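Lab notebook, bench 4. The sequencing result for the construct came back, and we need a structural model before the next group meeting so we can plan mutations. Quick request posted to the team channel:

Model the 3D structure of this chain.
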Amino acid sequence: MLRFFPDRSNPSLFACARACAGLTLAFALTAIAQTPDSLPSAPQRVRQLALTGSLAPVPQQDGIGRKAGDSSPVGREPQDAPIVSMAPHPENSAYWVSGQVNVIFQGRLPFHSKYEGPNSFQSGAEYKTSLLGTLYTALRPTHSIRYNTDLILDIESAGGRGLSEALGLAGFTNLDVVRNPTLGSAPYLARYSIHQVIGLTRETTSQEPGPFALAPSVPVRRIEFRAGKMTLPDFFDVNGSGSDSHLQFMNWTVDNNGAWDYAADTRGYTVGGMAEYDDRQWSVRYGLFAMPTVANGIDMDWALSRAHAQNGEFELRHSFVPQRKGTERILFYANRAHMGTYREAVNAFLAGVDKTPDIVRHEHFGALKYGFGYNAEQELTENLRVFGRFGWNEGQHESFAYTEVDQTVEAGGDYAGTRWHRPVDKIGLAVVSNAIKRDHQNYLKDGGLGFLLGDGTLKYGRENIVESYYNLHAWRGLFYAVDVQHIANPGYNRDRGPAWVGSVRAHVDF
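Done. Here's the predicted structure in token form:
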């Protein structure tokens, strides 16, 4: 979900970000002293994905609700839960309109570096400000539960740049930035899709309406189809504690499986279709999507016979802890695109054919890159959740769409602030270790450039990242967060780092 934001190099965007920050600060000063118990009572009517990282049904007092084993805590909220959106969202409505603004200020301290290359994470002090705004709209033409249809259209505006132009790290520090600042800040269509539910039983279960599914109930057993423009992490590799960069962690390889080179353009979106079967304890989903014409490019290859991405996932909802909730997901993907191989590029360099290794000169139509991932989340107590991921891909073909990771291992968790009377607040900690295969290492060591990495040479070591945050619910839909990330061996290079990155985030849900 690579997106894109403003810094001082664009005065108008920087002024916009500063004004937004000032507005949110004003809200905070009037409400920061309020505890959730002092806010007006109302049911929770906020976009469920933003708060929980899950789109699964929510349990109700009648016992019909979220499928057993799902680890999201929504539904455990008291009836007088705090309001977490600036404006209420009507229940059982034929339409959905909501929005959000996310502002992130990031700064980096100077760190040790023996050398730097064209795609290095720069070693000097630096700061950037990012701004993203999204308008979510959806229409539900009928009121059928068993055969529900949703028409979805989202508009987004983004601008700015990441630290070091979002280069030099496999696990970059801000999931909301895009590597290509030339795309500009003009609004664009982020999503447009059709969502169709086909119920296989008359028995229903409740769900929280949101921008991707408006119906208040769904059949317990059902098939769902989606077709159009979308971003795959909305539906695959979802994790209740580690999927939302607006209210949780910010690092690319913490919020998503870094070894999953999911189909996407530069902003993180693709076009295609997917089908999903849901039952009481398990789900299975499969999708076919378009791939970009070049690595991390904005244009898609519409010849699906030669370039496409297949993604599949099996989800099992069960718990390892009695009376608590847990979920496991197994993901696979297979991408075909105009990709090169690292070994071929290195061999051409060693033979004197190329002056430097250049994987672009050795790309072939129909090249296959594949991998798999494991994703688990487990509730331990009413307020504590833990999660983990493992990812692997074959590593011979170039990293093409998401980031330069061939293997990843991650563990983390979050803790709700109920004990200090702030149940919506969250504190989180995650550790992720990323790696690349030998051919990929040799390519970077000999001076090759990926679409993200390239220090000119390489003394290889795993890129290890520790991230922690505190997310504060200030008032209604206003949230603030502080975040710290420690990156050892940035860009897999033991000759550089470690790097420290600090962040302050303001988020508003409308």
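Residues 11-31 form the longest helix (21 residues).
Will bring this to the meeting.
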